[in-house]
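Summary of Year 1 activities. Much of the first year was spent building the evaluation harness for sequence design. The harness presents a backbone, in tokenized form, and records the residue chosen at every position. We chose the following record to illustrate the format because it has been used consistently in internal testing since the harness was completed.
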């Protein structure tokens, strides 16, 4: 069809003013353009609490649908199941003793330098150096609080938690709408991109809802959040279902209102009613599920937003948690322990036309592996720094073929004091077994669980002469040596 002269002039004018090119570059990626990346990370969501897993009666219709269209890594664990160490592993690709985030970041750990070093090359730094626009929305929790402490509610007690992240410590994220750590879910606080340390603001809205709104604005590029002609990465870091579980909109609580409590407390590792942790579980399980269902709905809005902007086919989407949550199971109030509810995390990876959808019960994933795997999927394999501990399994992600890890190494509950690294727990996990050594009151206690026959980890099978124990222990000792970990498996502190 021949365009009239006036139409040609109008078309050229639109191009010159950027009215067309931004939309074209968003919806029709160039043949060799690197894909976008969206990482949705939630806090304290155990893998068992996903509807499609059919282990708990929680409602997650969005994830149920997404799981059928994606790679689901059923055996994924948080190698150090507490907030700051897990997030530091994700962004640095390094294990905690190497990236120096081996306990939660707060004022108690600050004297020992516990925070993500500015010198670490995160995957977001690599993307920035290779032409990406990067955005971060929500919880960060990788910068150490310092005096005078930010005047927020979680900084006014013995231990301060929250801190601003200055631009030079944002690791290549050029759009920043975030906070350190803050648990008032119904009135969250944020620092805008150009806000100073003292210039944060509150929002009278449930955090995940507000953060999903911000993600949709980022996709639309409503306020020039990103450079429209560049590929982008966006992290949406939602705090719920982290406690306080009851800070959740009533519409999600009502979904579980008529569900009999007895039907939610059937697992044998839930302590009985009348005990502190038994009551912890019973008092919070409906609210925990309500938080999950609410976040699930926001994930749906984010996925719909990608589709509406024509970004769906050229965007890798990762949904994951930093760690799980016992919620009282095993007499553990939440995370930072060796049990499956603490360790196992949701892990869904989607990229239409590139990653074959499947429910994988074999792949023993570790958080540091995500860094090199994602970079290779995005065409940046040769940009992975040598300092990264993780290994790329991009080929396996695509089609389930090729090399995969034989085991996972787990650790946690380490004292922040540099002189007390021989503390907490260390272990090794396979699909069938978990061997762990826990330093309790200056005595190391060993555990072996058969994860197939005893999924609720009720029977400690440890026997030092057992062949399986000897094999797994030898591998664990090799790992400790390789990672310069001073933890001693059989002696006291």
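For this record, the design step produced the sequence shown next.
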């Amino acid at each position: 069809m021949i365009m009239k002269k006036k139409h040609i002039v109008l078309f050229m004018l639109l191009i010159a003013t950027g009215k067309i090119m931004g939309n074209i570059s968003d919806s029709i990626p160039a043949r060799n353009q690197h894909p976008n990346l969206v990482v949705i990370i939630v806090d304290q969501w155990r893998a068992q609490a996903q509807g499609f897993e059919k282990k708990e009666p929680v409602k997650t219709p969005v994830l149920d649908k997404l799981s059928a269209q994606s790679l689901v890594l059923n055996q994924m664990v948080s190698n150090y199941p507490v907030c700051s160490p897990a997030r530091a592993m994700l962004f640095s690709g390094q294990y905690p003793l190497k990236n120096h985030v081996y306990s939660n970041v707060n004022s108690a750990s600050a004297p020992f330098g516990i925070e993500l070093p500015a010198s670490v090359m995160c995957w977001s730094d690599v993307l920035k150096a290779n032409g990406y626009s990067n955005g971060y929305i929500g919880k960060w929790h990788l910068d150490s609080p310092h005096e005078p402490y930010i005047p927020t509610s979680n900084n006014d007690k013995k231990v301060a938690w929250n801190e601003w992240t200055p631009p030079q410590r944002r690791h290549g994220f050029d759009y920043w709408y975030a906070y350190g750590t803050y648990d008032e879910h119904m009135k969250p606080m944020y620092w805008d991109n150009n806000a100073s340390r003292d210039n944060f603001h509150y929002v009278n809205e449930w955090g995940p809802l507000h953060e999903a709104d911000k993600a949709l604005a980022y996709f639309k590029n409503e306020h020039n959040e990103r450079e429209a002609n560049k590929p982008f990465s966006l992290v949406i870091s939602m705090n719920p279902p982290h406690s306080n579980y009851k800070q959740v909109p009533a519409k999600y609580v009502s979904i579980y209102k008529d569900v009999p409590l007895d039907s939610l407390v059937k697992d044998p590792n839930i302590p009985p009613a009348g005990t502190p942790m038994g009551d912890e579980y019973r008092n919070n399980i409906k609210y925990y599920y309500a938080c999950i269902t609410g976040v699930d709905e926001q994930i749906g809005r984010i996925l719909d937003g990608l589709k509406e902007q024509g970004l769906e086919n050229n965007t890798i989407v990762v949904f994951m948690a930093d760690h799980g949550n016992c919620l009282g199971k095993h007499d553990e109030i939440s995370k930072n322990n060796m049990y499956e509810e603490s360790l196992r995390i949701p892990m869904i990876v989607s990229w239409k036309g590139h990653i074959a959808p499947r429910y994988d019960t074999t792949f023993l994933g570790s958080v540091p592996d995500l860094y090199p795997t994602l970079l290779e999927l995005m065409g940046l394999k040769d940009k992975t720094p040598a300092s990264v501990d993780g290994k790329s399994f991009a080929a396996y992600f695509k089609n389930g073929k090729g090399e995969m890890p034989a085991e996972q190494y787990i650790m946690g509950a380490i004292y922040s004091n540099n002189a007390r690294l021989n503390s907490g727990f260390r272990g090794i996990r396979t699909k069938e077994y978990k061997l762990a050594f826990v330093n309790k009151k200056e005595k190391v206690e060993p555990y072996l669980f058969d994860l197939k026959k005893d999924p609720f980890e009720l029977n400690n099978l440890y026997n030092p002469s057992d062949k399986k124990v000897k094999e797994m222990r030898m591998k664990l000792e090799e790992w400790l040596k390789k990672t310069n970990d001073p933890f001693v498996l059989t002696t006291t502190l």
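Confidence is low (pLDDT under 50) at residues 1-32. Quantitative recovery figures across the full test set are reported in Table 2.
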